[in-house]
Amino acid sequence: MGLFDRISRVVKANLNDMVSNAEDPEKMLEQSILEMQEDLVQLRQGVAQAIAAQKRTEQQYNQAQNEANKWQRNAQLALQKGDENLARQALERKKSFAETANTLKTNLDGQVGQIDTLKRSLIGLESKISEAKTKKDMLKARISAAKAQEQLQSTVGKIGTSSAMAAFERMEEKVLLQEARAQSAQELAGADLESQFAVLEAGSDVDDELAALKAQMSLGPATSSNQPSLPQASESSSAKSNQVVDSELEQLRKQLDQL
């Protein structure tokens, strides 16, 4: 393949690509309808011209036929008058017009067939134009729907990468983080409050038990008013008893400190 052939092919390919990209489906549909309507106008003009030509040929045929018939009558009249030479001339004229009429009849038959063909073509083109108009409306609706779908997909595709969407997602993450912090603080506050109440409850039990123990040790065993009182112990016995109690209290304090 020569260099110029390759260049020519590249140029044609680029031109075809430019033409394809420049074609607007809606405009091309409208243009196609306009071109078909122009063809319809030309075809109607052609049919009208063919019909006019047929009428002229028909008139010429009828005129030639009438002339042939007239000279036929003239020839008969000349023979009746005994003028054979005049009759021969009349028959020659009749023959000339008859030949002309035959030629016109052939042309007329051809024109009739041609006009029938043109009329069928005209009807077919009108039907095609009507069908094309219906299809044009349907195709334009499909084109509009396809453009809308394409624009929607393009918009949806851009949402994920747009700065507005990214900012929205960042704000959403911040809100979620703030909610998580608030929930954590609430849980910690609740746990601390529960621990404080637990300490209070535990301390109350110990305090109650300590108070009961103090009351028991200070009051001693309960005595009834009806019973006779026991003789008081000697001072030495009371001193010994106080030492025992002090010793026991000291041991109790040590045990409490070791806890």
TrEMBL record:
PANTHER family reported for this sequence: MEMBRANE-ASSOCIATED PROTEIN VIPP1, CHLOROPLASTIC, PHAGE SHOCK PROTEIN A
Family recorded in the similarity comment: Belongs to the PspA/Vipp/IM30 family.
Protein name from the UniProt record: Membrane protein
Keywords per UniProt: Coiled coil
Keyword Coiled coil appears in the UniProt entry: yes
Compositional bias annotation for Polar residues: 221-245
Coiled-coil residue windows: 47-81, 115-188
Listed InterPro entries: PspA_VIPP1
One Pfam family this sequence matches: PspA_IM30
Basic and acidic residues: compositionally biased ranges: 250-259
Source organism of the structure: Aliterella atlantica CENA595
Disordered: region residues: 217-259
